[in-house]
Write a structure and sequence with these properties.
With about 100 residues, the protein is mostly helical. About 45% of the residues lie in helices and about 10% in strands. The longest helix has 11 residues, at about 75-85. The radius of gyration is 12 Å and the shape is globular. The structure holds a DNA duplex (13 and 13 nucleotides).
Length: about 100
Amino acid sequence: MNFEEKVWKLMERIPKGRVTTYGQIAKKLDTKAYRAVGNACRKNPYAPGVPCHRVVRSDGSVGGFGGKISGKNVKEKIQRLREENVEVKNGKIANFKEVLFNF
DNA sequence: GCTTTGACTCTCG
DNA sequence: TCGAGAGCCAAAG
């Protein structure tokens, strides 16, 4: 199994209404390839089976899909997050600690 | 096979 | 509090 497949599989485990960080995923995979995780996310061939929008940065900010990349459909992702009990404020998770999914 | 790049994270000033 | 720099790993050129 490739590294990316592991990442995707792990992301699949993220329940609705919860989020996780790249660091958590990397840690679960016994690696420090935080950035590679992000890369795998960006590819994301299993979307929306693999909800990459539920993966955020360690500080609770939504990461690249929130402010840098794809400025419009991102809002829909954010909106979906908010519908899933995840409050997003200004590109960051408001109740981050509460919705953070610990593997 | 080496170099570049990235949706990252940590530390320091 | 915020920005810059360094370190990390994997994929693509």
